[in-house]
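#lab-general

N.A. 3:47 PM
ok so I finally got the sequence cleaned up, no stray characters, all 259 residues accounted for. can someone with queue access submit it? mine expired

B.Y. 3:52 PM
send it over

N.A. 3:53 PM
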Amino acid sequence: MVERKNGVSATALKALQALEIIAGSTSPLSVQDLAKKLNSDKTTAYRMLLTLQSSGFVVRDEVTKRYSLSYKVVSLSRNLLAENEVTKLILNALRELVSVTYETFHYSVLNGNQTVLVLRVKGNQLVNVDFQIGDCSPLHCTAIGKVVLAFQDVRFLEEVIASGLPKMASNTITDPDELRLELNRIRSQGYAIDDHEFSDNMRCIAVPIFEGNGRVSGGISASGPDSRFTFEKLEELKKHMLTTSIDLSRQLGGIPWST
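B.Y. 4:20 PM
back already:
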């Protein structure tokens, strides 16, 4: 029997949580591993795995008896990541930035209380911060997270603050009032910088991309080791990225921050 609370299937939520855990693991998981991460008993974990295996979303290694993600999950995002006209415009903008800066650029979108990287164009720098498609970032301590958060409504911001602002690195903003001031600055200047807020050896810069009705659901970012991403380097990147933010926003029917 499926347990329900307020119309939500607890069993389905548990199965989806199991899928997220398997997807986030760097190695295949045993039933015991999943049970521990789910904070459940082995019988429940096994049922979740059996369901996911039966539906084709996880596979079981018959030798190790461990479970890993199957390639069927790729089909879920096929249409979302398809190279439609919007995607083409964004990729062209990223490629243009790469061509003039030689850095790697990412396009990430808001997904719940984090951003997820959906498009990436690699530069030719030998030393990079190697973020991958599908990687998620917190909103309060990353350049891309802050630049997207800055243009959300107040209620959403307060929900993010209420959920906690965990310290990730030496300069992470953990005070709600300080974060509000930082987001005000970002709204006025049109870009965000992460200076040792997510990692103590990295700096990042990001700009918002405006869509119709002033909505900001994503943005463009670049990250690098602080030895190369100096403040002088960030200033140089900022000029190119602000131009791209304005141009791409207009192409997508949005009104850029500077106008």
